[in-house]
Amino acid sequence: MKIFSDAKLEPAAAENLRDGVTPHELLISKYLGASVLAKAAPDPAFGEAEIAFGQPDPGSVENSDNLRWVHLSSAGFTRYDTPEFRALATSRGIVVTNSSSVYAESCAEHAFAFMLAQSRRLPKALASQTASGTPEWFQLRTTSSELRGQSVLILGYGSIAQRLAEMLAPFQMQITAMRRAPRGDESVKIVTPENLAPALAAADHIVSVLPENEASRHFIDREKLAAMKSGAIFYNIGRGATVDQQALAEALHSSHLAAAWLDVTDPEPLPADHALRLAPHCFITPHTAGGHRDESGTLVRHFLANFQLYVAGTALRDRIM
Amino acid sequence: MKIFSDAKLEPAAAENLRDGVTPHELLISKYLGASVLAKAAPDPAFGEAEIAFGQPDPGSVENSDNLRWVHLSSAGFTRYDTPEFRALATSRGIVVTNSSSVYAESCAEHAFAFMLAQSRRLPKALASQTASGTPEWFQLRTTSSELRGQSVLILGYGSIAQRLAEMLAPFQMQITAMRRAPRGDESVKIVTPENLAPALAAADHIVSVLPENEASRHFIDREKLAAMKSGAIFYNIGRGATVDQQALAEALHSSHLAAAWLDVTDPEPLPADHALRLAPHCFITPHTAGGHRDESGTLVRHFLANFQLYVAGTALRDRIM
Question: In this structure, is the dihedral angle defined by the CA atoms of residues A48, A50, A52 and A53, taken in order, positive or negative?
Fold first, then answer.
């Protein structure tokens, strides 16, 4: 069996990958992605592989007669989430899995860090050197708040959202999540996109973990922003293109929203003079929510665990197609 | 019955206090503290009161023949935590309570916000405008981490520490707390100050919530800092005087500690040229951990709930002497 990889990995993780697939043959691409997120160039070696790990060129899949399984090195999969690619995967019987289990913990912790940093006014408090009893101090103290008892709406209910809901459990929050196709077994209150407006109006915190695809582009538009409660806080750790960024900047300028915390934008990075960079109370991290120590190592271990399932003929984890 | 108050309160909370103690007489001090933390000046009205709410002058207690109960408007009680005051309270049968229930939630959330902000590298990530795939981006991603599975040592095991331990439960952390007098009913592993060294050496995160008194002054000294694991992170939401700040600054300069997050310092605020202000990876908020919306309101509600217990002759909450 031939396994193709274009994932950019630390040397120890690459070695672990090679050991883990032995005695099968590992074909390392000449064109490694700049990161686990970046698209790699087409590679002729791909055409021989039964399994591909990384971010293989979607267009090459059509020409790879042997391909049976693609394991993406990311949680996001925008460039594969097209009607054409889905049709191709279905017709050819190609299974597609992603690495959402690898990123769920750190992404949920990142979202939670945003929520607590906002609640405790950390950006302002860390910059202040004020003394107790000053007007600035009273302003900081009285605008700091407790997450306990507040309400949160999570847009999307995949592994990140479910982990975030677990983390919020000790805070006695009212947790609602939006899911396109409710299954009935969710542990929080579920709303569908069609009945979202009352949930938007009720939430103190709106956390988006939406992936990017045709249906989600500019999902957070001017109308949905207007439907949010005055003083609400918006967080995005999904994909930047799911938001009408100009409308978000205006909602911050008008103080309709109290703050926005974004790990993802469109494009990344935003130009220094972009409306969101200039908007008040807009806090941006450069797509680092998924980062964690030994990310290469956990990616490879996750792939190898799935590889063992594949060899055993069992259902794979994190299957998306 | 006469109730003395020198707590600085918002008008609505002050009104609520007056209503809540009716038909008893409320004596509002002419000398309100600058904040709920600040010592008020001696006030002759104090001498008539049976109950005092706020930060009454400890020296005046000796001359107040009618005093039976002091309810402090803070969680900290350094200026009352002396052998002399304790002896006086005991001999006169004066009960002392504090407002730790009022501040446990926000202080624990503040400590948790520090831990997650550090874990997700928020100060650095929020300041970065780097693109995916750059060396700066890889450095941020790979030095970001997950709290899950790490270890934390909490110094002190009062209401703040217990609430923090509840919040950390979903993170599968190894939680240890130091308590001078273990009771055996604690929900986490307990160590005493005498056997602290191995716990200091094992912890990824050390969170101090120690109050300030004779026994705790410079408790975190050069020796204890040296006993901490290389790369550990120190957090202080107790009192600044419990730390040898010069030794802490050196531990940060030498990179023995990866970071320090302090809501309390000695003095407050630190001078702009203080060693800790110049130390790398030292993050300071200006004693805002206890702040939350309607702090005056929750303080008064907490006092009034205790007042009802007092009137009913029942044991008071948050009793400290």
Answer: negative
| Buried b or exposed e, range A184-205, using 16+ CB within 10 angstroms | eeeebebbeeeebeebbeebbb
Nearest to B154 by CA among B112, B119, B123: B112
Q: How far apart are CA B101 and CA B98, in angstroms?
A: 8
**Number of neighbours of residue B102 by Cβ within 10 angstroms:** 25
Residue B179: per-residue pLDDT: 96
Predicted local confidence at residue A57, as pLDDT:
85
The verdict on whether omega for the bond into residue B267 sits within 30 degrees of 0, i.e. cis, is yes
Cα–Cα distances (Å) from A49 to A4, A53, A68, A301, B252, in that order, read: 6, 10, 8, 20, 50
Q: Residue A267: is it exposed, middle or buried by C-beta count within 10 angstroms (0-12/13-18/19+)?
A: exposed
Q: Which residues on A lie below 8 Å from B116 (Cβ)?
A: 109, 112-113, 116-117
Mark yes or no for CB contact A125/B171 under 8 Å.
Answer: no
Distance from the A281 Cα atom to the nearest Cα atom in chain B, whole angstroms: 12
CB neighbours of residue A300 within 10 Å = 29
> What's the ipTM?
0.91
* Residues of A whose CB is below 8 A from B147: 109
Q: Residue B172: closest CA among chain A residues belongs to which residue?
A: A167
Supply the mean pLDDT for chain A. Answer: 94
> Would you give the distance in Å from CA B225 to the centre of its chain?
20
Euclidean distance between CA atoms B225 and B248, whole angstroms: 7
Q: For chain A, what percent of residues have pLDDT higher than 90?
A: 87
Tell me if residue A258 falls in helix, strand or coil.
strand
Q: Do residue A288 and residue B121 have CB atoms under 8 angstroms apart?
A: yes
Sheet holding B151-155, edge to edge: B189-191, B174-178, B151-155, B205-208, B232-236, B257-262, B282-284
pLDDT tens by residue, B283-295 = 999 999 999 999 9
3-state secondary structure of B138: helix
Residues of A in contact with B297 (CB under 8 A): none
pLDDT of A35-81, one tens digit each? 666 666 677 778 889 999 999 888 888 888 899 999 999 988 988 99
Which residues, 6 or more positions from A218, have their beta carbon under 8 angstroms from its beta carbon? A241, A242, A243, A244
